[in-house]
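FIELD: query
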Amino acid sequence: MKIKLASLFLFIVVMLIGCNNPASNGVQNIVDNVEAQFDYALGEIEKVKTDSLLWPRSVEKGAITMVPSKDWTSGFFPGNLWMLYELTQNDKWKELAMDYTLPLEPEKWNDDNHDIGFKMYCSFGHAIKYSDDPKLKEILIQSAKTLSTRYNPVVGCIRSWNSLTEQWAYPVIIDNMMNLELLMWAAKETGNEGFREIAIKHAQTTMKNHFRDDYSCYHVVGYNPETGAAEKKNTHQGYADDSDWTRGQGWALYGYTMMYRETGMEEFLNQAIHVAQYLINEADIKNGDVPYWDFDAPNIPNEPKDASAAAVISSALFELYQYSKDQEHYDVAKKLLDTMSSDDFFAKTGENGGFLLKHSTGSKPYNSEIDVPLVYADYYFLESLIKYKAMHKI
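FIELD: result
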């Protein structure tokens, strides 16, 4: 009888441990697989990289797509290496992360678009956690200065693109919420409240003009730069102007969750909670399924999925749960992480061009990066995994 009770106790313990892990084999197994895949990826990258095309973005037609520093995705791969270092404490990954981070320095002067936040904070923002070199912070501060030059106080927003002027005189996209973290960091680091004021005003203006009554959001709002009026509300990467481009909803959730963390302003927490509820009302998200690229895409279920959207949403919900204490926020984040960690989406070592996640969609309307790996999907997947691991102290 004692043997049976002991066996039953061991079974319960094993089941409880399994329930706390984002995949049946546990967090450590996922980390081991990530490490093995990155070893493979670096070997593949060595075959195709050049002095200017240093950073992997995707795989199309069987070949790794490499990009220059000016590409909006260039900061994600070094960010992935920094997060792998955080997960393993293996100095090899720290050294490689720095090797892929430092060549991005010239981008601190690139004022061509808003994406400097993605490029610099996703790379140098990690580097400053593990190095006391003051130059790294100086690079980030200059990056914030450059980003702030794109702010128009009449509009109350940072301009997104300089192109597409025939469509929008002053375009602002929901993605731009993600770049505000750089400004909030710079405000704290320098004591320059101007950075903070720009970030807060941008978030407030976006909250006013980008969202519909159900807290879904438009992708692009076109402003009049002379009057500040919101004149157009459209999409560039979604199915239609009135549809819900999935990754854009993720950017919104993440952006307002982050802004609450950085400011403590209840209006941002409330906005994040409303956006989360909108997302959770979508069956795919509620059930932990990787969503289609647009919630309103016309040919569902014969539409491509977007694992990058799932990764952004999962990471954001894990953080939001810490503020909202709404169990559903945690449960949905966990379900999404489980799904991304499954064989259906998590690539086997030596496949998928060395990327972690399969089945992301970059821009369906422009027939670009359809059902492929994307470096930023891996970034937010790793971020989600790290948040889960920290919450459970494993």
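FIELD: remark
The chain is about 55% helix and 10% strand.
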